[in-house]
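Anyone opening a protein record will find just a pair of labelled lines. A complete record is shown below as an example:
=====
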Amino acid sequence: MMYSEYVHFYYIPFFPVGKDAFTICTRCGFKKTLRLTREFCTSHSLDYGKYRHPLRTFSGLLFIAGIILFTIVAGKFGD
């Protein structure tokens, strides 16, 4: 199972800060969490690009960028 950690403000995610792989042994039930890095993926023959962060983890940044863009456009048409 893969999951992402991200910086958030009042439950609005701004940007991801890491990816973790969560594994469970089928024989004994041992659980382990591994940090998914480029080095880990290349040493284990995995495609790092396959494990991308969902776009929703950038929603806070997109919201702020939209407000800034709106302010710039409104300022140009307001003159």
